[in-house]
Design a protein that fits this description.
heterodimer, A: Ubiquitin-like (UB roll), 21% helix, B: alpha/beta, 2 domains, 8-stranded mixed beta sheet, 5-stranded parallel beta sheet, 12 helices, globular
Chain lengths: 77, 359
């Protein structure tokens, strides 16, 4: 099952996809290390993380089948 | 009205409500129409701009004969025909640090229909200080989102700085006017904002405590994220407010790009450059932006420019984007960090395609 990673807004300018299946990892810090490794340009981007549709403010343990979303700020109108 | 739960009491609450809509653009138009239609008693409308042709596809209150007139004036005239009882207060200027406290104080809640981060942070901080809720709305590309923030009926209201404690830097993100937007998208988001404002005023339905609802136009899908208090949030109080700069800051906090002098060239000069051998043209639009261009160029999107400087040759760079706004910042940034001469193409590809099609 692994981890489902979702990208929103201007983050997809970098990833060019809205979703990726990721190999299981133990927590969000480890996951993000891998994601940043694959998309180095994300390092300077602002975004928050949501685990299973719930915002998280610190490292969180992951289980198989979890979904992690990267949400950048939006400002257009 | 015979909707269960929506009786005289709800209608009375709407009639007594005072709502400020900041921005009379793609989001603000539907917000105003539905709030006035619902019978909100007093509505403040704020926007310094005049109606222009490029607004019409998404700012559905306006038509061709309104071009050149103040948006708040036109909006007010049209809404009075829809509901003559609604009291409209026109603010034909921008929300600023100087006027925000005294204006927002007069309203029960604020609907954010702005198109820039400076205004969103200003609305947020003033609403936190004055203990008022605000309905956030924004679009980005094919996505849009809405949230009720600083919902003061909740024991621990979540506000915008719980999501993004620091305001993003200038041109970290492109605006709608620059990248373009499908008109119906801000229509959907603005309509949702009106819905949340009506729910908040009447107390109907589920109380939102900063649940962020994201809509994707292309996939037709919705994604809701439950928000919560961020322990790293700065304390938003008077001293924080007075020392905060709500103007959009340059791309890098340590440097002031505005002091970097770069040259702008017009389309005629740009066409001449293309004839010269060995020129280097850089397109800084994001990868999803169309159309593609027919002249030889390199493409490094603005969003990855900082990390990509070593891909640029040590020679003069001619920079182009959609409208010639982002290219100025890219030119300043590259000149500062690469030490090469940079030129921004005035009017961008919009001007280029106009010139080419007129030939």
């Amino acid at each position: 099952m692994g981890i489902q990673v979702l990208f929103f807004g201007s983050i997809t300018d970098i990833t060019l996809v809205a979703a990726l299946s990721w190999e299981y990892c133990a927590d969000t810090d480890t996951l993000m290390k891998g994601v940043l490794n694959r998309f180095p340009a994300l390092a300077n981007k602002k975004y928050f993380l949501a685990l299973n549709q719930q915002v998280i403010h610190e490292n969180a343990p992951l289980k198989q089948g979890d979904t992690v979303a990267l949400m950048p700020p939006f400002s257009g109108g | 009205m015979i909707l269960p739960g929506f009786g005289a009491d709800a209608q009375q609450k709407l009639a007594e409500a005072k709502v400020l809509i900041v921005g009379m653009g793609g989001l603000g138009c539907p917000v105003l129409q539905y709030l006035a239609g619902a019978g909100v008693g007093s509505i403040g409308i704020m926007d310094p701009d005049q109606v222009s042709l490029s607004n019409l596809h998404r700012q559905v209150l306006f038509n061709e004969s309104d071009i050149g007139q103040l948006k708040v004036k036109v909006a007010s005239q049209k809404i009075k025909k829809l509901n003559s009882e609604v009291q409209l207060i026109e603010y034909p200027f921008q929300l600023s640090k100087d006027n925000a406290l005294s204006i927002i104080e007069q309203f029960d809640c604020v609907v954010d229909a702005t198109d820039n981060f400076g205004a969103k942070y200003l609305i947020n901080d003033v609403c936190v200080m004055l203990n008022k809720p605000w309905v956030y709305g924004a679009v980005s590309g094919y996505e849009g989102q809405v949230a009720v923030l600083n919902n003061i009926r909740m024991p621990q209201p979540v506000h915008y700085r719980h999501l993004f404690p620091q305001q993003p830097l200038q041109n970290e993100f492109a605006s709608c006017e620059e990248t373009g937007v499908i008109g119906v998208l801000p229509g959907i988001i603005g309509t949702l904002q009106a819905a949340e404002a009506i729910k908040w005023i009447t107390g109907l339905g589920k109380e939102q405590n900063g649940s962020l609802l994201n809509y994707h136009f292309l996939s037709g899908s919705w994604y809701a994220i439950a928000l919560s208090v961020n322990p790293q949030v700065p304390v938003v109080d008077e001293s924080f407010f007075y020392k905060t700069n709500y103007e959009m800051e340059p791309m890098n906090e340590e440097e002031d790009l505005e002091d970097i002098d770069i040259a702008e060239i017009d389309i005629r000069q740009f066409l001449q450059i293309q004839e010269q051998p060995g020129h280097f043209i850089l397109d800084v639009r994001e990868l999803h932006e169309y159309p593609t261009v027919d002249f030889v160029h390199a493409r490094i999107p603005m969003s990855v420019l900082k990390e990509s400087l070593d891909q640029l040759p040590q020679q003069p760079v001619y920079i182009i984007c959609h409208q010639g706004i982002r290219s100025v910042y890219a030119a300043q940034y590259i000149k500062l960090h690469k030490g090469v001469e940079t030129y921004s193409v005035k009017g961008g590809l919009t001007a280029y395609f106009n010139a080419v099609s007129n030939e």
